[in-house]
């Protein structure tokens, strides 16, 4: 395994947030509960995601967990209360859904680097990411119907796009655990490698994507999302189309004509077949 000079972007209570050569790494840092998340964990990850979105020197985001036991074991059962996961002020929250939305909306690739158990909401977290690279000790599965929770959102619908309807129902209805190899064969994991090679492999994938056209990756992600995300997905796809239009001289002509108090001359622009 290569040792890399990750630098800390920002300090948080529940996560580590590091940077290395265009890659941001968000590590859930609660190994004592197998990297289960509580409301504060999601607030931390949401804040880090906002920084990833804003910083143009960040091209790819990686999610992982501290240690070699767990990627994430889902919602922290110690703080599960009536109406959600109870924050420090006693407010019940399901703010992991905001994280799912942030991952879907992120105009950059997001990779789950699964280093152990991806269970319950931790399984959903990897499902929602664009790509999943797993170590050979990783285990995947849902527990919701066993422990009194479920995700009928992306954790079901996007999962079914990966593994098919029958398998998605099996995963949720039976709450069994699957090896990394089985998860790869099902289509919900891109690659399985030995644990000691996990970060090297993930960084290789990141470096390859960092060499690709960021706008092309962005539009591919938007298009693939739009197919599943309905009006919201179309809005994001359309928003990026508008952004690209704003980059064209044709759009500048409209604005310039308005400011110069003249009629715009759109005839000079080609009408491609
Ligand atoms: C991960 C499992 C299978 C590991 O088993 P193993 O190896 O036998 O270890 P344990 O001894 O069980 O665990 C080690 C220590 O870690 C603690 N711990 C593990 N998981 C959690 C957890 N989720 N919360 C709190 N603590 C946890 C153990 O207690 C143990 O600590 P010590 O040593 O002190 O005893 C196994 O641990 C396991 O099955 N864990 C629970 C998995 C689970 O059921 N997670 C919750 C599932 N539900 C959700 O995630 C809901 C998420 C949600 O809110 C949501 C809502 C709407 C839409 C979407 C979502 C969403 O899913 O994202």
From TrEMBL:
One of its GO terms (biological process) is menaquinone biosynthetic process. Hydrogencarbonate binds at residues 142-144. It is an enzyme of class 4 (lyase). One of its GO terms (molecular function) is 1,4-dihydroxy-2-naphthoyl-CoA synthase activity. The keyword Lyase applies. Its cofactor is hydrogencarbonate. It comes from the Bacteria. Pathway: Quinol/quinone metabolism; 1,4-dihydroxy-2-naphthoate biosynthesis; 1,4-dihydroxy-2-naphthoate from chorismate: step 6/7; Quinol/quinone metabolism; menaquinone biosynthesis. Substrate binds at residues 73-77, 85, 117-121, 143, 149, 246, 261. GO terms for cellular component: cytosol. The record marks 85, 246 as: Important for catalysis. Pfam families: ECH_1. It catalyses: 2-succinylbenzoyl-CoA + H(+) = 1,4-dihydroxy-2-naphthoyl-CoA + H2O. Coiled coil: none annotated. Keywords: Lyase, Menaquinone biosynthesis. Its EC number is 4.1.3.36. Belongs to the enoyl-CoA hydratase/isomerase family. MenB subfamily. Converts o-succinylbenzoyl-CoA (OSB-CoA) to 1,4-dihydroxy-2-naphthoyl-CoA (DHNA-CoA). HAMAP family: MenB (MF_01934). This is 1,4-dihydroxy-2-naphthoyl-CoA synthase. It comes from Labilibaculum antarcticum. The lineage of its organism: Bacteria, Pseudomonadati, Bacteroidota, Bacteroidia, Marinilabiliales. The gene is menB.
